[in-house]
Fold this sequence. Notes:
It is built from 17 helices and 10 strands. It is of the alpha+beta class. The protein has 3 domains: 3-163, PAS domain (Beta-Lactamase, 2-Layer Sandwich), CATH 3.30.450; 185-283, Beta-Lactamase (2-Layer Sandwich); 363-451, Arc Repressor Mutant, subunit A (Orthogonal Bundle), CATH 1.10.10. The strands form 2 sheets. A 5-stranded antiparallel β-sheet has the order 2-1-5-4-3. Strands 7-6-10-9-8 form a 5-stranded antiparallel β-sheet, with helices on both faces. Helix 11 (285-361) runs antiparallel to helix 12 (368-382) and helix 15 (412-419) crosses helix 16 (423-436). The longest helix has 77 residues, at 285-361.
Amino acid sequence: MQDHTKTKQKLIEELVSLRRKVEELGRSKPSESTPAEQLIQANEAKYQRLFEIATIGIFQSSAEGKVITANPVFARMFGYESPADVIASIEDVATEIYEDHQRRSEIVHMILESPTLRNFENIYRRKDGSTFIGNLHIWPVQNADGSLLTIEGFVEDITERKRAEKALWESESKLKAMLQSIPDHMTMMDEELNIVWANKIATQMFGDGIIGRKCYESYHNRKEPCEPYPCLVLKTFNDGGVYEHNTDVVDKEGNTIHFHCTANVALRGKDDKPVTVLEISRDITARKRVEEDLERHQKYLEDMIKERTEELEGKNVTLQELNTTLKVLLKQREGDQKDMEERFVMNVRNLVLPYVEQMKKGNLNVGQRPYLDIIETHLHAIATPLLKNMRQFNFTPKEIKVAALVRQGRSTKEIAEILGIATASIDIHRKNVRKKLGLSNRRANLQSHLESLE
């Protein structure tokens, strides 16, 4: 692997190793160009090359805080034109590159107390006064007596990474808050149906211990996956689709709850296959009860309507039977009435009118004959449909007498003499008869019209 392709951590480890070798070889102080001296020169050259091409800021400072060496990246990181500019400008790193002036002394104290402690996160200040967040990897260089000679280390600008971490944290916090605020039961399962995450509603309903348990154990008190197999979560794992169904679960109190569940992919792996599935379950217990109540009420109404319909149908049959009976009775009554009318007419014609004819042949005085004529006229009217037809026009008794005499061809004077009233009264009755017959505005013969009523 080429030097410029080395990872930061490997580069740090190699630089530290090279620096220590250079120091150890340098303490041997060879008098002439020996293999050891040649090794020192080779290591120093390699160190210097890594020092120049490194992608992180490398520095060395005195125990008092004066910058002794710095690479180009360190210079650019802190806003200086070159490493020489850094060395010439920075006299005290504690006050010139640390935002918190006490921070360097704290770090020095900590690394001397705990030699294994090497990494620190700090806020640094550039030459122009702007700040950035840096990750410091540091180690002390000490004398044999333990006194501090120099401090060497690397600084990596992690501002963008920290911003990204903050943005990610904020995004995760918002997502978490959003998920926790959703009133539905929500859980994530892996392909083994282990619950790996649950929102607050789920833990309140089924207990905090559901994380890590099988979903069918937590929700259905089962030892094996739900039937029919595969369940909707496994279907989503199989093809990445969205599936939903209704099911019954048992909460931590032992209550049965009706759920409407929807399964969807939550996370996918590099091969685009589902890694976790999110199941959102809505409590539809109240809705289910309302639907059951509505179903019962509808069944009750249907039964009541059916019973009422059967009752009305029974009454309708009875009414139809009564109607048929009434029709038969009315028809029979009409027949009886017709028979009675025929017998009555026959009796009048056979038993009464012959005697009237005999009386007319006898010796009658002037006053008796008109009355006999009236009797004969009325008997003929009774024996014919005329009287029945005239009744439908609401004639008065006097108008019926006048109409019957007009039909026989009697004049107004004769009718007046027969009825014993004035001719003017007969004219009024004739006028009323014409009006009721609808002849007021017509020049129709009253006698002919009356004859047509038979």
